[in-house]
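On clarity, I found the account of how folds are encoded harder to follow than it need be. Since the whole study asks how a given chain folds, the encoding of that fold should be made plain. For illustration, here is how one protein appears when written out as sequence plus structure tokens:
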Amino acid sequence: MRRTTITGLTAIAMSAVTMLAGGFASGAGLGGRPPGAPRLQALAGREVIKIVGTIPGPLHAKVTAKGAFDADGYFFRKKASLIFPKGRLAVRRRLLSTSYRPPNLATCWFKIRQHGTFSVFYATGKYRGLRYGGQFWTRIAGRLKRTGPDQCGSKTAYYRSVTYEIGKIP
């Protein structure tokens, strides 16, 4: 009986140590910074990233960052990366809501809105070690090519997508 009690207490103590070590290893005690990552004192505060695409498909959309750091670059869709001259940020998004307005048959205009959360989970160059997240929203407006009176085709005549990612860098 005594041996079972000691073994049980040892197991409880080991699991408590594991939980504490796991909390520190996750970066929770380091201000959201992973272990070994350099401190980014100069990069702190609110950051607004604007992504503007004018052509649907694989072409790169223009990116502008303002706030904690200012940079212009482009969005690489295949890897969901924001590429700037001094480094790149990899972004993961979680979509929470989508609303879609189908094309108006008289004008062939359509609109799509999305919003959710995002997180920067990887960074290189000047931004190495940067981790932050926040809210994003996207507005897409487009017009389909007309094929006749009150008829819209499937080809896009006009397209514009604007995404805002707003977050606070700790």
Summary: The first strand starts at residue 45 and ends at 53. The chain has two domains: 1-36, 43-169. The longest helix spans residues 2-25.
